[in-house]
Design a protein that fits this description.
With 277 residues, the chain is of the alpha/beta class. The chain has eleven helices and seven strands. It has helices spanning 2-8, 16-33, 41-48, 52-60, 67-75, 96-104, 124-136, 152-163, 181-192, 204-217, 246-256; strands at residues 13-14, 86-87, 108-110, 141-145, 169-174, 220-225, 262-267. The strands form two sheets. A five-stranded parallel sheet has the order 3-5-6-7-4, with helices on both faces. A two-stranded antiparallel sheet has the order 1-2. The longest helix has 18 residues, at 16-33.
Length: 277
C-alpha cells in the first residue's frame, strides 16, 4: 500500500502561474501561426514530441508528470521552466468528495485570440439583457448582429468575463480566418472532454452529437466571433460558403436540442438558422 501511495505522488503539475504563462504564450503562437485557432491535442503532440495523453495531463494539471516533460513542453514554445511554474500534485485534493468540490469550483477556459477589454465603457444595458437571456431565460443560442466596428467582439469578451464563474467551461473562438466546421467541432470536443476525445471521425453529425453530449452534461458558454466570414456576400448574405454548410447544422442542433449551455454568435449578417438576436 505504501508503495502505491508513493507512486501516486510522483511527478509534478503546473502551478496556476506556470499554466497561465504557458497559455499566454500558446495563444500568441496560435494567433501568429494558426490563424488564431486553438491547437488541437494532436497539434500540441506534434509540436512538443509528447504523447497526446501526456499533453492532456500537462494541460489539465490533475496527474503528475516528469519535470523534464514540462521542460520539453515549455521549450516547444520558447519558454524556460522556472521553479514557480510547477509543484507537487498532492496540492490538489485527493479525497473523492473534496476533489469533486474542487472541480466544481474550476472553470476551464479557452480564450483563443480574444482581445484585451481591460478598458471598457458603457454597454451596461446590453450586458444586462444578455446576462438575463443566458442566466435567467436559459437561451441556448443567441446572435449579436450589427455592422462592423460597433464593438460586438469587445462586448462578447466583456460578457464572457462577467459570466465565467457561472459556467464549467468557457470557449471564445474567432472565425475571422474561416476555419472549417469539422476543425471547430474538434477543438470544442477536445477541450470539453479535457483532452480525452482525440481521435474523432471526420463525420460532422458524429462530432455535433459528441459536442451536444458535453453541452448537456456540463454548463458551457461557447462564443464564436465573426461568423459572417463563412457567409456569401451581397444577395446571398447569411448563406454559407461552399464547404461551410455544416455550421448551419451545428447552430440548428444547438438551438433546438435541450441542454444546459449557451452558444453566442457575433455577426454582421443574420445566419440562416439562429435563435434569438
Amino acid at each position: 500500500m505504501r508503495k502505491q501511495q508513493l507512486r501516486g505522488k510522483r511527478g509534478v503539475v503546473l502551478t496556476s502561474e506556470g499554466w497561465q504563462r504557458l497559455q499566454e504564450t500558446q495563444r500568441e503562437s496560435e494567433s501568429r501561426e494558426n490563424f488564431g485557432v486553438p491547437y488541437t491535442i494532436e497539434a500540441l503532440s506534434d509540436r512538443t514530441h509528447l504523447d497526446p495523453a501526456t499533453v492532456s495531463k500537462v494541460l489539465h494539471r490533475e496527474v503528475g508528470v516528469d519535470r523534464r516533460t514540462l521542460e520539453r513542453f515549455f521549450h516547444a514554445f520558447g519558454l524556460g521552466l522556472c521553479k514557480t511554474d510547477y509543484t507537487k500534485p498532492d496540492v490538489v485534493p485527493k479525497n473523492p468528495q473534496e476533489f469533486s468540490d474542487y472541480k466544481k469550483n474550476q472553470t476551464w477556459q479557452n480564450w483563443g485570440d480574444a482581445p484585451d477589454v481591460s478598458v471598457f465603457y458603457g454597454r451596461t444595458q446590453e450586458l444586462h439583457i444578455l446576462q438575463q437571456w443566458i442566466l435567467d431565460e436559459h437561451c441556448r443560442l443567441i446572435t449579436l448582429i450589427g455592422i462592423g466596428g460597433i464593438g460586438k467582439t469587445t462586448l462578447s469578451v466583456k460578457l464572457a468575463q462577467q459570466l465565467v464563474e457561472q459556467f464549467d467551461y468557457l470557449i471564445w473562438l474567432s472565425l475571422r480566418n474561416a476555419p472549417p466546421p469539422l476543425e471547430v467541432l474538434a477543438t470544442g470536443v477536445q477541450f470539453l472532454s479535457n483532452g480525452e476525445e482525440t481521435d474523432l471521425p471526420k463525420d460532422i453529425s458524429y462530432r455535433i452529437n459528441c459536442l451536444l453530449k458535453y453541452l448537456q452534461n456540463k454548463r458551457c458558454l461557447l462564443i464564436l466571433d465573426n461568423i459572417d466570414t463563412i457567409f456569401f456576400e451581397g444577395n446571398y448574405a447569411g448563406s454559407y460558403l461552399e464547404g461551410y454548410e455544416g455550421y448551419g447544422e451545428v447552430f440548428r442542433k444547438i438551438g433546438e436540442t435541450s441542454h444546459q449551455s449557451c452558444l453566442l454568435l457575433t455577426s454582421r449578417e443574420k445566419p440562416k438558422r439562429s435563435c434569438r438576436h
